[in-house]
Request: fold
Amino acid sequence: MPAFKLIPNDYILRKHPDVSWREWLGMAWNDIEWPVVLFLGIMSLTLGIVGFLQYPSPDGTPRSFWDSMYGSLQLFSMQAEFASSALLPFSLQIARFFSPTLAAYALFQAFMVVFKEQLELFRLVRTTNHFIICGLGEKGFLLTKDLRKRNHRVVIIEQNGNNPRLEICRELGAIAIVGDARDGKILVKAGIREAKHIIAVCGEDGTNVDIAGQAETLLQRKQGRITPCTIHITDPYLWTILREREFVKAQISPVRVEMFNIYDTGARALLHEALNLSDDSRPPHLLIIGMGNFAEYLIIHAAREWCLLDKHLEQKLKITLVDPLVKDKLANLQVRFPLLTKTCEFNPQKHSTNWPKLQDTIFSLETNQENPVTNAFICLDDSSFGLQVGFTLLQLLEDHGKELMVRMAEDSGLASFLRETKNPGFKNLSAFGLLESTCKIELLDDGAHETLARIIHEDYVEREKEKGLTVEQNPSMIAWESLPDELKESNRRQADHIGIKLAALGYGIKPWREYGGEKFKFKNEEIFKLAKMEHKRWRDEKDQEGWKYGEKRDDIKKIHPDLVNWESLSEDEKRKDIETVKLIPNLLARAGFQIYKLHG
Reply:
């Protein structure tokens, strides 16, 4: 019998918005089940004792207390005997039906506990096209809830069998396996060969990398659809190194490894939500309080977007930084990302992030009428103190219309209150829940290859619109989210092949760090070679899908007039491929990468 809890968990105290009432009631019952069964068992035993004390023995003599207790216990196993002619007391009538029912229920639950793993394995046999989540920490838990909310099949691998989140996830409908996800046998047990996606969010970066390597080994002979494997990397240095290797090898592996970092993903999401750098009505001046990992990525992505908009040619992006170690941290960041020096104008303020010294900094900024702060981002590690700073700043700047954003670890508690409150005085203060905003299914579109594939499609749609075409004329011009899986996969293959084409010319791909990385241009002879390779890639893809050459295109019969060699291709079609490869540097920059010349 599992240990019961007299204090219910958060799901009982209040219904979580991610679960239905049926799931919530199930989790509530799971927490109070055994205390209720024990209470009912004692009540039934007591009713039986009272009933037997009132019910005479076969020889007509009164029963003793101990005889009555023995008879009441026999009720649970349905072994108690009654005289057919005697009228049973009401309490005994209740006990003789209720006791065996409770015993049967307890026996059934004990059976379920003992054979839980075997039942899970039985469910696994029938599970296909599912998500495998390795690691049930906070990130894995949030991902599981989001996937189950959208009715996706989920299999969890968690090394700690005592993790309390295991039972909650099982109640949500996920299958849970206790074991080490680096073990190939455990991954096979989780159905890796039939999985739709593998997500590794264990606490250690090395563990997540090992899981990806094990997945590649297990699936190396797999034919057909490529299996994505998304792994979380926390360390910023390891993140940079691994991202440089994402495009190194040819994508012939049946596993497409994607990496994500909640700080990187969250910073881009926050900029998209809270800042419009293309707005020419007022020059932006960002105030960032606290320089942790999240703040660094915020600066990097803001600078990259400023470059892509060519705003840096007119003026640098003004950023004021407040942190006790701001000078050392900024110098380190500028060494790692040289583009920041020529793109941004920094105003480092070496102050404690505690009041009242922080107040003095804010007041000094407000007296600067030439470059007033337009957006403030509070990126302190202590979420509660960060929100406190946000409320105080709101009072100081209430007449200035500043947009204040507080980065919170979770989108709950005070952050939830701030989002749901109708107080107009809080309209310029927002909370950004880092974990909730990043640990959801949308992050699967955030890896390097997936991001690049999405950008390729968005660029294709824009070019088709410039030709005057509409969705009715070209059904492929729909949003990425609505695009059929086969067309998404086609864009992914095009993204995968960029690294192969560039390697053939002696170029590599790395995270965009240098100034001017987005302005890279190919030589004319390189453009024609890339265009030929792109056309061959497209032909090979169509051949694998069963398309044939024909003078008139027919998508139903899979006939296409351009399934010829480069020399036989029309000039218009050649021009399309040429324009496509010319855009590679810009597409990579929009995904956060740049091209560089390989040595040797």
Summary: Confidence is low (pLDDT under 50) at residues 1-16.
